[in-house]
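Sequence design from tokenized structure. All designs in this work follow the same two-part layout: the structure record, then the generated sequence. An example of the structure record is given first.
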């Protein structure tokens, strides 16, 4: 995910003809990385975290906050893009993706033995 966002950021900053190719490649890497990694990981971790007695209610609450986060990013990105430009906006998202990778690696029990 980080490499895809980084390529999109580089493509947004490029001044030569490679801008479109770099951006499309970055977008494809982002989608591939998200679908194979943290995309379904949220739902798997949420199911394993809560005991069966109140799993339904807890998953509903987790799903609510998941969608609130998605809507927040959807509405904030255009504002960020207009104020600082697309390249720096994607560099910020790259930083968040790296932080997510690091926190997942150290905090998720299934990834500690890797």
């Amino acid at each position: 995910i980080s490499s895809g966002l980084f390529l999109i950021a580089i493509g947004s900053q490029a001044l030569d003809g490679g801008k479109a190719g770099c951006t499309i490649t970055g977008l494809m890497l982002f989608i591939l990385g998200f679908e194979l990694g943290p995309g379904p990981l949220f739902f798997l971790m949420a199911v394993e975290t809560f005991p069966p007695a109140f799993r339904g209610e807890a998953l509903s609450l987790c799903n609510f906050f998941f969608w609130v986060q998605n809507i927040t990013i959807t509405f904030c990105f255009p504002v960020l893009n207009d104020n600082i430009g697309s390249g720096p906006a994607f560099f910020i998202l790259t930083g968040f993706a790296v932080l997510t990778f690091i926190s997942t690696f150290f905090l998720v029990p299934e990834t500690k033995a890797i």
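The radius of gyration is 17 Å. We note this feature because it recurs in several other targets discussed in the main text.
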